[in-house]
Amino acid sequence: METAQLYTYFLKAEALTTDSRSIPKNSIFFALKGENFNGNLFAEEAIRKGAIYAVVDEEQYKNHPNIILVDNTLTALQQLANYHRKQIGIPIIALTGSNGKTTTKELIHSVLKTTYKTIATKGNLNNHIGVPLTLLSMTKETELGIVEMGANHLNEITTLCTIAEPDFGYITNFGKAHLEGFGGVEGVIKGKSELYQFLIKHQKTIFINADDPIQNNKTANYPRKFSFSHEHGDVIIKFINAQPFVELSVNNMSIHSQLIGSYNLNNIAAAAMIGCYFNVPMDNIKNAIENYTPTNNRSQIIEQNGRKIILDAYNANPSSMHAALDNFALQKETSKLAILGDMFELGEAAANEHQQIADYAASLVNTDVWLVGHNFSNTISSLKKFPNFKDLEYFLSEYPVKQKLLLIKGSRGMALERTIKFL
């Protein structure tokens, strides 16, 4: 079926879903497939639950007049999203980077929605499925779209750009994330910079942190860019402090955020910069940033039994782990404990990167550090180590934590937010 014809079916539906467990009324269901599931099996069930159409790619499941057969459901979804993107013709801002993507996306959304009808990626639906779903949630009434793009291999950002065709783009940073897939830091830089390459090729606008030498190098001599910097950007950012929340000034306007850690300075600065570019009033920018509070285990502050917990357990890599420890070391509380979980997707670099973090953590003054997970347990360190979460859970049941300030950080697979209920 041609994309234009499939689009007519999409327009008749009130929602689009890929999850047969949750079928909105009058929706269109795309039967996607993976290693351990086949959505084609649930096409008829989706119709019974209220979908008006189901899209399949195996002919044997086209046994209902409202089931639509395509060659490949994922490809059809991506092509439909690109077609829709062309039909609505709204400005799209793309965002990628090693650390801080989702927080930065949420901040940008908070700022822009004060002035524009804005739709942004929900949660972290930032892959080859999430990006199409984000685009298809936009309408002609949407004035600005914000699309987060994640990647752990080369050419993924290029693919996502081909689907979304962004008009603007920003890269948060280039760090030690997904080293296994990218093949090292140089691969990370090359992979994330695919966003720049697309924007430059199509003469679109690039947002940059002008204090980042990599971003400057990758966009050198390109005229269509807008920047923030501490000294020489289009928007001037000044760091004031982070004790514990980040305070900064944007073009001489003071902003008191609810985000901890100096590593969030650039995330806030990016949102302010993009707000300035789109002529959002400075008061709106200030209010949006000051009223934003993190969720989903991202730098959350939790008060519990007279102690303060910095819960940053959504994800971790060597760059973000080092930054979190730097910030933790600066906190004035004298009774401190950091519980660190393994960092995933580091490939052959895993042993060395975990050892470096363990060494750095051991050097911190007035800070106790516990290491959790297989990789951290194999480091050579005098720090307290737990091979798995069960061991940590047992220890906590026998020896209650006495420290007043805690940092809990690890990769998503470690699910260290579970620690909270055992403290």
From TrEMBL:
Arranged from A to Z, the UniProt key words for this protein are: ATP-binding, Cell cycle, Cell division, Cell shape, Cell wall biogenesis/degradation, Cytoplasm, Ligase, Nucleotide-binding, Peptidoglycan synthesis
Q: Name one GO cellular component term.
A: cytoplasm
Q: What is its EC number?
A: 6.3.2.10
Pfam families, per database record: Mur_ligase (PF01225), Mur_ligase_C (PF02875), Mur_ligase_M (PF08245)
Which pathway is recorded for this entry? Answer: Cell wall biogenesis; peptidoglycan biosynthesis
Residues bound to ATP: 97-103
InterPro entries (UniProt xref): Mur-like_cat_sf, Mur_ligase_C, Mur_ligase_C_dom_sf, Mur_ligase_cen, Mur_ligase_N, MurCDEF_CellWall_CoF430Synth, MurE/MurF_N, UDP-N-AcMur_synth
The Mur ligase C-terminal domain extends over 298-375
Domain Mur ligase N-terminal catalytic: where?
Answer: 15-83
Q: What class of enzyme is it?
A: ligase
Q: Which reaction does it catalyse?
A: D-alanyl-D-alanine + UDP-N-acetyl-alpha-D-muramoyl-L-alanyl-gamma-D-glutamyl-meso-2,6-diaminopimelate + ATP = UDP-N-acetyl-alpha-D-muramoyl-L-alanyl-gamma-D-glutamyl-meso-2,6-diaminopimeloyl-D-alanyl-D-alanine + ADP + phosphate + H(+)
One Gene Ontology term of the molecular function aspect: UDP-N-acetylmuramoylalanyl-D-glutamyl-2,6-diaminopimelate-D-alanyl-D-alanine ligase activity
Q: Name one GO biological process term.
A: peptidoglycan biosynthetic process
Question: What family does the database annotate?
Answer: Belongs to the MurCDEF family. MurF subfamily.
Q: Which HAMAP family match?
A: MurF
Q: What does this protein do?
A: Involved in cell wall formation. Catalyzes the final step in the synthesis of UDP-N-acetylmuramoyl-pentapeptide, the precursor of murein.
Q: What protein does this entry describe?
A: UDP-N-acetylmuramoyl-tripeptide--D-alanyl-D-alanine ligase
Q: Report the source organism.
A: Imtechella halotolerans K1
State which gene encodes it: murF
